[in-house]
Amino acid sequence: MILIGELSLWVAVVMAAWTTTVSFAGGKLRRADLIASGERGLYSTFALVLLAAIGLWTALLSHDFSLEYVASNTSRNMPGVYVFAAFWGGQAGSLLFWALILSFFSTLAVLTSRGRSREMMPWVTGTLGIVILFFLLTACLGANPYTRLPFVPLDGRGLNPQLQNPGMAIHPPNLYLGYVATTIPFAFAIGALVTRRLDNEWLAAVRRWALVSWFFLTVGITLGMWWAYVELGWGGYWAWDPVENASFLPWLTGTAFLHSIMIQEKRGMLKKWNVVLVVATFLLAILGTFITRSGIISSVHAFAQSPVGNWFAGFLIVAIAATTILVMTRLRDLEAPVTLESMASREAAFLYNNLLLCGIAFSVLWGTLFPILSEWVRGTKITVGPPFFNAVNIPLGLALLALTGVGPLIAWRRASVSNLKRQFVAPAISGVAVAALLLALGMRDPYALVSYTLGGFVAATIIQEFVKGTRARRAIHGEALPIALARLVARNRRRYGGYVVHLGIVVLFAAFAGMAFKQENDVTLKPGESFTAKDPWGHQWRFVSQGVSRFEASNRDVLAIGLDTYRDGKRIGVMTSEQRQYRDSRGNPTFNPSTEVGIHGTLKEDTYVVLAGVTGDETAELRISFNPLVWWVWYGGGIMAIGGLIVMWPAAERRKPNSGYRASLAPNAELAEAR
Amino acid sequence: MSARSLSRRDALRAAAAAVAILATRGAMAQGTSGADSTASPNGPTDGSSGSNLFAMNQGAARTVQRPPKPGVKPHVSDAERDQVEKKLRCQCGCTLDVYTCRTTDFACEVSPAMHRDINELIAGGYGAQEIIDAFVGSYGEKVLMAPTKSGFNLVGWTMPFGAVLVGGGLLALLLRRWRRRGALAAAGRATSPSPGAIPGVDASADELARVEAAVRGDDR
After folding, report:
1. Which of A63, A187, A230, A473 has its CA 20 to 30 A from that of A55?
2. Given an 8 Å threshold on Cβ–Cβ distance, is A348 in contact with B175?
3. Residue A76 to residue A65: CA distance in whole angstroms
4. By three-state DSSP, how is residue A205 classified?
5. Residue A589 touches partner B, C-beta closer than 8 Å
6. Looking at chain A from residue 405 to 464, which residues have their Cβ under 8 Å from any Cβ of chain B?
7. From A594-603, A604-613, B57-66, the region with the lowest mean pLDDT
8. What does the radius of gyration of chain B's CA atoms come to, in whole angstroms?
């Protein structure tokens, strides 16, 4: 099976090249046989990549250490789930994994679009084929998972211990799914540009894929934050590391697209802009991959200093050049009869939203790349770390939060004074009430105050929408409250799913603001000694050292500290933090020691204990932190993901009335009806 | 027929095998410096590394020493020292600040060394800004967690806001133009119904013509 997998990988390269060639030729010559051959080639490519993936999984699970990838990323005593997940734990495997998802998504996209967009589809298939070809070539020639060692070691090195975490097993595949899904809208955009069919037809095909990408990026980023928080031990979940930024960039432009697409559907505006956003989202996903895998910018993430980066740089340059030429030569086809009645209208609010989302995307990209620019211009190395990103992005983020409340409620075309009053008086009062309450309680941090005030305002707008809608249903249909609420959401999934996503954003901002009140304590404790501190909520905590212990677990040596923990005099339990040295099945150390953080989490705050070192025999050096509202980050991410699922749910497409943006206001906004 | 297909299959197989061998050789000859591919199958990566996630440079610490200030007592509190450490980046390659790294990564030898230097400077009577300046003097600007707000760095600091302002300005111009166009269209509809307009249908003659063209398929 391993040999079949290896050969399949190479045949898949040939098949992807065939798919691209005949699809483009079929599109150009309008030959149905070539177009059909291209489609079948795409399906075959998927089958071959699947075989290649099964081959690698077989090698991993059967511990075939003759393969360098298997020997470098797994060992005999590793839990089975991590052996399985090692498929995407290293450079070469993750490239094959990417090709696998991409060929699967491409097959799905082409299958579900059969019979529609006939003129465009060969170009879509060809574009998908070319991207798959690139990943397969990179996997074959840049970092091949089937590369063999000149000898067969008795055991492998094992997976990096810090990657042996459930979050890490799920987080990268989710991000890959999100990155890869950006390829489908990109391919449709290229198809639309080449065939000059730049009406709303291509948008109909890509909206769901854009949502799929957004959903997986949201889940992937949230899981990544969770992994960083529980595994790395530095006490936060977001460090503005280049690789984190790389995942955030396509999320930002993808979110902008999901908003601006509504304006094109409803008003026929922003044709050029939507093409630019779709293309930019894909290119940013590739740029992110380049940053992750080239080592061009210093990052805590692995894959550093890899030759694979050159492949991505080359692909990125070609893709930017090709799409720029395509867009520039089609500018006239993208003209749309645009009119606007008022600056205070929903379409204007969505444009402000796009401005801010793209502004944040630009500032994140700028901050990530500025060290390189500085070195070029001045020859001086500098660091652009969290103080820069926070200073720049917090004001922009807060403005975006305010728009999250305004955008969905303001009227299309022109908001009247009565509309504004009807929609915003109660939410504005709620926001002010939250501010007054927090000021009275003694909160003085300006950003946190603004954040919670806006959070109160936005949450009230969302609750108000649910209350109004449910009341209307109850009045019209006489339904019970839970049924009215459920049907309100079920029959207007796009709108109310969107509100749920916005609610998740509010919860996230509340969590981010909470970190302004984080407290860190640098503590040294001998056995029996205690440390007392007051947390940001005013609770008195006491930690009593039970001493340091050393013991062996299944595949590691452990150095652990136990802290008997009390809050306001009441015993919570024993909090432990560990240093671990992993060993292979013969007892040899694998990798370097790693930290296991002790976390006591509640809705109000996390108590976070890190064993930073041990001096002498038993004196432990610890960092004990109180991190407010961290759980709200995971809840916020979860709420956003649920909102995304509601919006994506297929049944919403079949419902006729009241589904948000079905009614067109512009002559060429036929998308809604076309669906 | 079967002999022919067999030979073709054999040829394909041979070609694929040849390509695979060549590529494998190529990949091995190329030599890899990737974090996951350089690793030897067993044992820690190398002696210099202390982290599993990035190439740690344990020798990155430089000595930052100044003679004690005569007659000046230490006046930087522990809390202020922590704030200073949060403005300085550990040089081991972790991207964390000195305080966070030294209280997180027990494998790092760089942040504890930087911490010791900071403590000695504090004991020598130096203030927070003087300590930061001393570190910049030894390590260069890269030791700061964020660029200084001077010189070329100002471009870095202002560009994001500049971009949003320019984008906002362009958007405002576009919105004004679209609004003027909208107002003209509305005025046109109100004063003189264009020829060809259908009573009761809220559409201009131009819009109706486009609908008619679309129905006839003129644009195909």
Report:
1. A187
2. yes
3. 10
4. helix
5. yes
6. none
7. B57-66
8. 35
As a 3-state breakdown, chain B gives helix, strand, coil percent values, each rounded to 5, of: 55, 0, 40
Contacts of A142 (CB under 8 A, 6+ apart): A95, A306, A307, A308, A311, B27
Q: Does residue A662 have a pLDDT over 90?
A: no
Which of A110-114, A560-564, B32-36 bottoms out in mean pLDDT, i.e. has the lowest? B32-36
Confidence of residue A340 (pLDDT cuts 50, 70, 90): confident
Mean pLDDT of chain B: 72
Phi/psi-derived region of residue A241, left when phi > 0, alpha when psi is between -120 and 50, beta in every other case: beta
Q: How many residues does chain A have?
A: 675
Is residue A442 classed exposed, middle or buried when 0-12, 13-18 and 19+ CB atoms within 10 A define those classes?
A: exposed
Q: Do the domains at A1-159 and A518-631 have one common CATH topology? A: no
Q: How many CB atoms lie within 10 A of CB A411?
A: 17
Q: Which helix (H) or strand (E) holds A667?
A: none
CB A219 within 8 A of CB A637: yes
pTM of the entire structure?
Answer: 0.85
Residue A591 confidence class, pLDDT cut points 50, 70, 90: confident
Q: A515, A628 in Cβ contact below 8 A? A: yes
Q: Taking CB atoms and an 8 Å limit, are B95 and A298 in contact across chains? A: yes
What's residue A453's pLDDT?
A: 97
Contact B167 A358 (CB under 8 A): yes
Pick the residue of A154, A157, A159, A622 with the most B CBs within 10 A to test the interface with B by mutation: A157
Tokens of A511: 């969590």
SS (H, E, C) A273-310: HHHHHHHHHHHHHHHHHHHHHHCCCCCCCCCCCCCHHH
Question: Is 80 exceeded by the pLDDT of residue A4?
Answer: yes
- Considering chain A, what is the average pLDDT of its residues? 88
Averaged pLDDT, A45-64: 94
Q: What are A187-225's pLDDT values in tens digits?
A: 999 998 998 887 777 887 788 899 999 999 999 999 999
Please write the tens of the pLDDT for every residue from A533-562. 999 999 999 999 999 999 888 778 899 999
DSSP B117-184: HHHHHHHTT--HHHHHHHHHHHH-GGGBSS--SSTTHHHHHHHHHHHHHHHHHHHHHHHHHHHHHHHH
Rounded-to-integer distance, Cα A350 and Cα A372, Å:
33
Top-level class of domain A1-159: mainly alpha
Amino acid letter, residue A53: A
Fold of domain A518-631: Tick-borne Encephalitis virus Glycoprotein; domain 1 (2.60.98)
| A288 to A210, A334, A358, A481, B93: CA distances (angstroms) | 17, 28, 16, 46, 20
How many C-beta atoms surround the C-beta of residue B8 within 10 A? 10
Give the per-residue SS3 of B77-90. Answer: CHHHHHHHHHHEEC
Indicate the residue of B16, B52, B89 with minimum beta-carbon distance to A10: B16
Burial of B72 (0-12, 13-18, 19+ CB in 10 A): exposed
Say if CB A177 and CB A98 are below 8 A apart. Answer: no
User: Complex ipTM, two decimals?
Assistant: 0.83
pLDDT above 80 for B23: no
Q: Which of residues 54-93 of A touch B (CB under 8 A)?
A: 65, 68, 71-73, 89-92
Domain boundaries, chain A: 1-159, 518-631
Nearest Cα to Cα of residue A17 among A134, A157, A147: A134
pLDDT band per the 50, 70, 90 thresholds, residue B52:
low
pLDDT band at A365 (very low <50, low <70, confident <90, very high): very high
Domain definitions of chain B by residue range: 45-146, 153-216
CA angle in degrees (0–180, nearest 5) for A200-A203-A209: 165
Separation of alpha carbons A310 and A141, rounded Å = 12
Tokens describing residue A464? 């108000």
